[in-house]
Write a structure and sequence with these properties.
Blueprint (H helix, E strand, L loop, with lengths): L9 H9 L7 H11 L4 E4 L6 H13 L11 E4 L3 H15 L8 E4 L6 H5 L6 E4 L1 H9 L10 E4 L2 H6 L3 H10 L5 E6 L4 H10 L4 E4 L5
Parallel strand pairs: 1-6, 1-7, 2-4, 2-5, 3-4, 5-6
Helix pairs in contact: 2-3, 3-4, 6-8
The structure holds adenosine-5'-diphosphate and magnesium ion (MG).
Length: about 210
């Protein structure tokens, strides 16, 4: 299979080519089409299997030309660590800048001063965040998530085992019911299954774990 077969828009296809991504990985082959169709998706695949682009490409494809107003973000990507927040936002920025109207992406995480993050929030379309700092920003009204169209939970297993369950639940309560939810994880724990059951509607489940 090629990326062309996945019906991604030409701006994204040419950026893939420019960055020498020749063909999709197995998880990318299977999740990109249902995400483009607007379905909720749970993708389970081991570390290093290309889960970031599996959701970043269709997310950008669906959101292009949608812009945020009044601190209402278009998409929220929740991640367990600062390192991952930075890494994922860099990937989104790389592909977003190929679009005719690039979406503005920002990473926020704890352990650093909140004020600079608050000041930059006005124009953000896609927010990549760790749960604790995100909740702080929501409580300060620096970011609004009531109109978020796409929610991504990346490394859901790690986010849950890091003890973020309470923060995550508070955040989920503030999201609109009508949204697309994408859940990615390297492992399928009971907690991950619980999130899938509580949060995803009619999900397409793709599990490319190799049996041990
Ligand atoms: P995961 O989130 O599943 O751990 P990543 O999304 O971080 O994996 O991707 C792991 C590495 O594989 C990254 O360096 C990424 O650039 C690379 N990669 C992703 N998709 C492809 C692809 N289709 N072809 C080649 N390399 C890819
Ligand atoms: Mg990952």
């Amino acid at each position: 299979m090629t990326f062309q077969d996945l019906k991604l828009s030409s701006a994204l296809l040419s950026q893939l080519e420019k960055n020498q991504f020749a063909s999709p990985t197995p998880i990318q082959e299977q999740v990109i089409a249902p995400i483009l169709e607007g379905k909720d998706v749970m993708g389970i695949a081991k570390t290093g299997s290309g889960k970031t682009l599996a959701y970043v490409l269709p997310l950008l494809d669906r959101l292009q030309n949608k812009r945020s107003e009044n601190r209402e973000i278009q998409a929220l990507v929740m991640v367990p660590t600062r390192e991952l927040a930075v890494q994922v936002s860099e990937t989104i920025i790389l592909f977003s800048k190929a679009l005719k109207n690039p979406l503005i992406t920002m990473a926020v995480y704890g352990g650093v001063s909140i004020n600079p993050q608050m000041m930059k929030m006005n124009t953000v379309d896609i927010l990549v965040a760790t749960p604790g700092r995100l909740l702080e920003l929501i409580e300060k009204n620096a970011v609004k998530i009531a109109k978020t169209k796409i929610l991504v939970l990346d490394e859901a297993d790690k986010m849950l085992s890091a003890g973020f369950q309470a923060e995550m639940d508070l955040i989920f309560n503030r999201l609109p019911t009508k949204k697309q939810t994408l859940l990615f994880s390297a492992t399928l724990s009971n907690q991950v299954t619980e999130i899938k059951e509580n949060l995803l509607k009619d999900p397409v489940v793709i599990d490319v774990q190799v049996p041990e």
